[in-house]
Amino acid sequence: MAKLSQEDLLAQFEEMTLIELSEFVKAFEEKFDVTAAAAVAVAGPAVPGAPAEAVEEKDEFDVILTGAGEKKIQVIKVVRELTSLGLKEAKDLVDGTPKPVLEKVNKEAADKAAEALKGAGASVEVK
What we know:
By secondary structure, the protein is an alpha+beta fold. Helix content is about 45%, strand content about 15%.
């Protein structure tokens, strides 16, 4: 089999529908035992002997969905927009409240997510 260039592969992907591309990604993940999740930056360990700050400002927040409210479908749509979850996974998250929607995000992202969820009728807690 001739080796395809990166441009050839991208041209093939452009011709695929979203459903076909989604099925391809699932098959790729199964074949090579990998996941196509977005990479998350990991902070390095603290330097030994470095003085700890007296008052440490919190820079990572968790957005926790505590209730779906009356507009459950709208909340599921917002959860899908905020995360990379599929429909079933987002519905399961909303049904299983209280559950974290976003974890270890900055203050601005946490506030935006909380506002979007509250706007859809959900009750949200930011920790």
